[in-house]
C-alpha cells in the first residue's frame, strides 16, 4: 500500500511540470496566431488554456486583447473586468479595459477607470498618457497636467512627451513644445510620430523667433524656462537669415556652449546629449536628421548621399543608445 501511494505521488509530482509546460506551449501557440492576425484561432486556444489556468493573468490579457482586435468589446470586457480586482493585476489590465471603453465612446467610464488605476499604479506613465488622451477627447484641458505628471513620475515613457509637445505647440507655449518634442524623438527615433514631431520642432523654432525679444515675450516663469530663454535670446541675431537647418545648427551650437559656460545651470540630459554630439563631431548630422528631414525629405536624402561617413557615424551612435530622462531633472513644475 505504501509502495502504491509513493508511486502515485511520484506520478503526480512528475505530471505538474508537464501541465505547466503544456499551458506555456499553448499560450505560445496562441501568441503565434495573434502575431499572424488570426484572432479566431487564438481565441480557440486561449479559451481552453484559460480553463486550465484560470489564475493566469497573462492568459486573460491575451484573450481580452483578441476580442479587442475583433472589435467584440462586450466580450472582451467580460474577460478583463473581473481581473482588475485581482491583487496581481498590472497596469496593462486597466489599459486593455480602458481601450475597450474608449472604442465604445464611453469616455466617462474610461476616465473613472484610469483614475482608479492610478491610485494603485501611481507611477505608471502609460496610464497617465491614456488618461490625458481621454480628457482631451472630452475637451478637458487638464489633459496637459496629466501628461506632465506622467513625465514627472515615469520619465522614461515616451508618449507623454509626444502628447505634451503637441499640446504646447498648439497653445501659446513656445519653449516646452521644443524641449519635450526633442526628448521624444530621441526616445522614439523612427516612426510616423517621429516625423510628425520633427515638423513641430522646425515650426516651433520659427514660432519662437517671431518674437524679437524672446525673454520679454516669455510668459512661463518657472526657473528652467527663464534660464532657457535667457540663453536662447542671446542667439536671436542669428535668426535674421531665417530659420533653416543651417541657422538652427548655429543657434543651437552657441546655445549649448553658452549654457555650459554659464553658472548655476541645472543638469539636463538632453543638453548633455547635445554637448556630446558637438564634441564628437555629430551635431551637424543630428540637426540634418531633425530639421532637413522635416523641411525637405529629398534634400535630406541627398545630404546623406554626400555625407556618408557623418551619417554612418551618427546613425550608429543613435542605434547604440536611447535618451533616458530621470525624475530629478523634471523642471516644469
From TrEMBL:
Entry keywords, A to Z: Signal
Pfam families for this protein: ANAPC3 (PF12895)
Signal peptide: 1-19
UniProt-listed SUPFAM superfamilies: TPR-like
Protein name, entry field: Tetratricopeptide repeat protein
Amino acid at each position: 500500500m505504501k509502495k502504491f501511494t509513493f508511486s502515485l505521488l511520484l506520478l503526480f509530482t512528475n505530471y505538474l511540470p508537464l501541465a505547466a509546460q503544456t499551458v506555456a506551449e499553448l499560450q505560445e501557440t496562441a501568441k503565434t496566431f495573434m502575431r499572424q492576425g488570426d484572432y479566431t484561432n487564438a481565441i480557440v486556444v486561449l479559451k481552453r488554456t484559460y480553463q486550465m489556468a484560470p489564475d493566469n493573468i497573462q492568459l486573460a490579457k491575451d484573450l481580452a486583447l483578441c476580442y479587442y482586435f475583433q472589435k467584440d468589446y462586450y466580450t472582451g470586457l467580460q474577460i478583463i473586468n473581473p481581473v482588475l480586482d485581482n491583487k496581481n493585476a498590472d497596469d496593462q489590465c486597466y489599459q486593455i479595459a480602458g481601450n475597450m471603453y474608449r472604442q465604445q465612446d464611453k469616455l466617462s467610464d474610461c476616465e473613472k477607470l484610469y483614475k482608479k488605476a492610478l491610485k494603485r499604479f501611481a507611477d505608471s506613465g502609460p496610464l497617465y498618457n491614456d488618461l490625458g488622451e481621454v480628457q482631451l477627447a472630452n475637451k478637458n484641458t487638464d489633459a496637459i497636467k496629466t501628461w506632465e505628471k506622467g513625465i514627472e513620475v515615469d520619465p522614461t515613457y515616451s508618449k507623454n512627451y509626444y502628447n505634451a509637445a503637441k499640446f504646447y505647440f498648439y497653445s501659446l507655449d513656445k519653449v516646452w513644445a521644443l524641449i519635450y518634442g526633442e526628448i521624444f524623438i530621441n526616445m522614439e527615433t523612427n516612426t510616423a510620430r517621429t516625423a510628425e514631431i520633427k515638423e513641430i520642432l522646425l515650426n516651433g523654432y520659427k514660432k519662437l523667433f517671431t518674437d524679437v525679444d524672446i525673454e520679454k515675450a516669455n510668459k512661463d516663469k518657472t526657473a528652467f524656462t527663464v534660464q532657457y530663454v535667457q540663453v536662447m535670446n542671446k542667439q536671436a541675431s542669428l535668426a535674421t537669415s531665417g530659420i533653416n537647418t543651417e541657422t538652427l545648427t548655429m543657434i543651437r551650437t552657441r546655445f549649448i556652449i553658452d549654457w555650459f559656460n554659464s553658472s548655476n545651470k541645472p543638469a539636463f540630459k538632453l543638453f548633455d546629449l547635445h554637448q556630446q554630439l558637438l564634441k564628437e563631431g555629430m551635431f551637424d548630422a543630428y540637426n540634418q536628421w531633425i530639421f532637413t528631414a522635416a523641411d525637405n525629405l529629398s534634400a535630406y536624402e541627398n545630404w546623406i548621399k554626400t555625407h556618408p561617413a557623418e551619417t554612418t557615424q551618427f546613425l550608429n551612435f543613435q542605434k547604440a543608445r536611447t535618451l533616458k530622462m530621470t525624475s530629478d531633472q523634471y523642471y516644469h513644475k
